[in-house]
Amino acid sequence: LKACSGKFTPIKGFLYIDADECLPEDLLPADEVAPSGTSRYDSQIAVFGRSIQSKILDINEFKSTTAARAAQTMNPQMKVAAYQDKVAPDTEHIFGDNFYDKLSGVCTALDNVEARLYVDQRCLFYRLPMLESGTLGTKGNTQVVVPHVTENYGATRDPPEKRIPVCTLKNFPNQIQHTLQWARDYFEGEFRQGAEDVNSYLASSDFAAELASQQATKLDTAKIIRRVLVDERPTTFEDCIIWARLKFEDLFANQIKQLLHNFPEDQVTSSGTKFWSGSKRCPKALVFDLDAKCEDAEMRNCFDFIVAAANLRASMFGITGSTDEATFRETLKNVIVPDFTPQEGVKIAANDAEAKEQAESSSAPAEMDVDTEVGQILESLPAKAELAGFKLTPIEFDKDIDDHMLFVTACSNLRAMNYSIPTEDTHRSRAIAGRIIPAIATTTALVTGLICLELYKIVGSARRDLKLEDLKNGFCNLAIPFMTLSEPQPPATTKAILKGKEWNWSAWDSLDIMDKGDLTLQELLDFFESEYKLEISMLSYGVSILYSFFANPKKVAERKKMKMSELVESISKKELPSDQLFLVLEVIATDMESDEEVELPYLKLRIR
User: Fold this and answer.
1) Which of 101, 139, 295, 318 has its CA 20 to 30 A from that of 261?
2) 194-243 pLDDT, tens per residue?
């Protein structure tokens, strides 16, 4: 129909638009538009001038501070406390019991599922209502979570995203998304995981015993520690530059040469077709050129890679870095790059099935016993006494930190050049790596309105006891257009018999002991018997077992005399924070009359 009528064929033409009314009428002085060389807004300065740029507010300000200031400008009576800390397990000394104890609800504006699930768990524990929302371009959703009325956010999960096959990432990329994911993975392994492994080794009193529990990965972990701590440990920034240059050669030249040694350009498969065909792009090794620019992104990827890698490495080891080009050129002149010799017997998986087979075979016993090799590596490491006070700084990738994105972009682009994939600049790479879809103000406004309707209900504007049918989750897509409101799901329940009565408890419930203080273990056991007619057979805190009926009677007798906080600190070998109000304990108990095990929620004991 389209071909016959020609009705829907594209219009052949182009669109030209100018906006010269945005520009000053007179030419600006040269010093007014001169780039600083350090500001990300140099291009804007070149167009509008430095003085206009300085008038634009809130650049380099935290979003929380800026939003709080804007809200108080609109409503001076509004009280806002702006934080610049990530809400996560490692900031629970800030956002702990005292913080949540003062809240009556939580309204989130988070940008990833991991953070949403964490805040959801906090709201579950403190039994706080939560208003959750999100946008994805023209799509938007809202979810209202009310204690004991609705299910919590984490009760249902979206299906996992489709992942890029491992062999595609490692050896056969064909899209910029593949090279960016590879670069991100390399960043995490080189600048975070290695540092964390070294710090674990330095902090542990018996690291060999800890490694024993990692049967499949302990040899790799030991090799990483030796490489980071001994073989490649820098002492000056020049060492970091040399390290970066050798990494370039390994990643973008030698590994490609080895791949082509295993799979030559003219290789054919058993069926007679060319191996390098279809989605498999035949790669080429790169030649290091500090001044070379890629055509697509017009970036000096070799130079950017060396600068970013060297500075990240220096930051990891506590060495002062530099971006001075003269320093890099002078150091790079004297770097001796070893000639490449292909290795025989190296196996490279041509597909996911082969990759899985190799992973399984790698866990089989090798010529040298793994434990023996791990022992030899650990013995070759410097004595911990020689490294007293030494600690590495793990670097966690953050797409909003320019230095991180410079490395990932350059690394991705060099990998893309290996495989003749069009490169991307830092701005576009940031959007792809962070899976960023630009926000649309209309979607945000609609979602905000829907959330505010639920907020009115939660704060009591409706003047009624909220039932499930009074609450609404929203889903919309302005591109269709489509919008629907639905009732939330009730929380799933588990049936238990407690004190002779049926109790259907959900994820919102716990066994709360709020007014007894820091009980001893014996007092806690007695309280369960008298209050719930239950006999505790096992009690644990996290991964630490505090009490079990089959434990050594002498140890049990000693523990029964201890306060619960003392017992937890003694078993876990960790001191409880001074502001921690609760202990969360897992309980296995049996009914004293029927002798049947009773399935219970966690125990929440207030100790302060």
Assistant:
1) 295
2) 999 999 888 887 787 777 777 667 888 889 999 998 899 999 999 999 99
Lateral strand order in the sheet of 473-477: 106-107, 130-136, 139-145, 473-477, 482-486
List Cα–Cα distances, 84 to 67, 68, 96, 341, 558, in angstroms. 12, 12, 16, 51, 45
Annotated active-site residue 167? The verdict is yes
Tokens of 233: 């440990």
Asked whether 97 and 604 are in contact (CB, 8 A), the reply is no
Residue 40 has what DSSP assignment?
T
Helix (H) / strand (E) element for 503: namely: strand 501-506
Q: Name the pTM for this structure.
A: 0.69
Task: Give the per-residue pLDDT at 367.
Answer: 42
SS3 label, residue 543: coil
**C-alpha–C-alpha distance, residues 91 and 85, integer Å:** 7
Q: What are phi and psi of 544, to 5 degrees?
A: -95, 125
Cα–Cα distance, 320 to 208 (Å, whole number): 33
Query: 165 Cβ partners below 8 Å, 6+ apart?
Result: 352
Query: Which of 397, 400, 427, 425 is closest to 410 using CA atoms?
Result: 425
**Among residues 123, 167, 240, 294, which one is catalytic?**
167
